[in-house]
């Protein structure tokens, strides 16, 4: 089966199937971690509360753990039908 041509999302380099509206939504959702970093940075800068910094540190800790686990547990992707 031929794969549909992928389109690059212009804001970042996220490839998605342009004919699928759900893929377009998922391309936007792929930006959520970057948006969260900007929000955390803004909140830390404006309020300077320790709790916000700890939430940001916890988020970054989860991202690092996720990155490491993905590299250690290399599971096969399910086949496309």
Which helices and strands occur, and which strands form pairs?
Elements: E1 6-8, E2 15-17, H1 21-29, H2 32-47, H3 50-72
Antiparallel strand pairs: 1-2
Helix pairs in contact: 2-3
> In sequence order, what are the helices and strands, one letter per element?
EEHHH
The Rg value, from CA coordinates, equals: 17 Å
Estimate the mean pLDDT confidence: 85
Which of globular, elongated, flat, extended, rod-shaped describes the shape? flat
Strand content: 5-15%
Distance between the termini: 8 Å
Number of helices: 3
Number of strands: 2
Q: In this structure, how is the largest beta sheet organized?
A: 2 strands, antiparallel
Structural class: mainly alpha
Helix content: 55-70%
Strand order of the largest sheet: 1-2
What report would you give on this structure?
Helix content is 59%, strand content 7%. It is mainly α and 81 residues long. The protein has a two-stranded antiparallel ribbon with strand order 1-2. The model has no long low-confidence stretch (mean pLDDT 85).
Compact overview of the structure:
The protein has 81 residues and is mainly alpha-helical.
Key features of this structure:
7% strand; 3 helices; two-stranded antiparallel ribbon; 81 residues; mainly alpha
